[in-house]
Sequence to fold (468 residues):
Amino acid sequence: MSNQSNNQNQFANKSQAWSARFSEPVSDLVKRYTASVDFDKRLALFDIQGSLAHAHMLTAVGVINEQDHQEIQRGMAQIIQEIEAGSFEWLLDLEDVHLNIEKRLVELIGDAGKRLHTGRSRNDQVATDIRLWLRAEIDQSAQLLLDLQKNLATLALEHADTILPGFTHLQVAQPVTFGHHLLAYAEMFNRDYERLIDCRKRVNRLPLGAAALAGTSYPIDRELTAQLLGFDEVCRNSLDAVSDRDFAIEFCAAASLIMTHISRLSEELIIWMSPRVGFIELADRFCTGSSIMPQKKNPDVPELARGKTGRVNGHLIALLTLMKGQPLAYNKDNQEDKEGLFDSADTIRDTLTIFVDMVSGIQVKANAMRAAALQGFATATDLADYLVKKGLPFRDAHETVALAVRECEQKGCDLADLSLVELQAFHPSIEDDIFGVLTLEGSVASRKHLGGTAPERVRIEAQRILDK
Ligand code: ARG
Fold:
């Protein structure tokens, strides 16, 4: 590219969209290095939405006239059509989504298109686009988190009475109901939902009007632009508005926690599905076979979800690191905010969509769960609590039960298999009501307080979630 083209109108020359003052073109590598159009073109419709609101506001305050406004609307309508039809030509030379769209607008409508950028900069434009896009993403993923809670609650209601061993240290601890176990995840996903909704409040603020960094001398009406775009508030400092990406970092942190919870659930699904455990089956559509071992049915989807947690955590650290060294106001570093943010949003949306479906397809093998709960002396704590209710101090009761467990281990039986006479040898206060306590059903039914594992409590909690 020669110098002469730099003297032309900025949009007449495709290779250097931003200025006539440069004396040599950038190399192809630098062009690719600095361009963002390959990934920020997905913001196109939000960019146009922001531009239309800006044009509306400029017209309302008399900076551009009604005819220009109509031309801009007409041009943008055509550009939307071209983008949706896939015929819009994206040019690397035009660097990013903003310049590509603006150049096409000028091609279509001439001078009116050149007036659109009055009182605006790509700095406040891009911050606005990301916020509009992220708000829509949050709304989708928040809804998926509600759907997931409901599907967990539906399965919990079905399995309010199904008993499996509860674990600590992955050792059998005490019996719990499967419904209660599922509702633990519903609680986690509910906090994730709350976090997204809270993050949305800070995403939903308008940067436009900050222009490059210092605001603008035109008599703009930022409240009007905010209202047109459905923003709750206006960013109150122009330097901050164009430069901070804390709203995106917050979203990435919320996304990391969503994936952390998904990953824990995945780990359990994988363990439960292992033939050694055999508590559940996942529907075939979430599993694959092996190319060499014909007997295999692998839980690929939960494994991948567990794995994808890593990249979402990585994006959080990348964004934090991107931000930490930047002086006010906008720096080109910020262009690097997008790919990780996009990927985090895509990953949680896709993962949650799959999990909503996968959870309702879980096939529960209640007999295997029950058999496992009968091993490992899961009701030992219940026996100790029984002795306490008969007047023993808890530490003595704990010791007494430990002796009983040792005897059962030697005999190869469960506590509930001991006769009343054998049990009374450990403590004379034991009577035949003990068998109500030593059974799995008696154990879980007694924990009926708020937050407990009893079937009646699970039904209340599951119904509460379904009624939300
Ligand atoms: N593509 C840029 C970004 O993503 C848009 C803003 C460019 N601003 C600038 N001063 N170069 O951040």
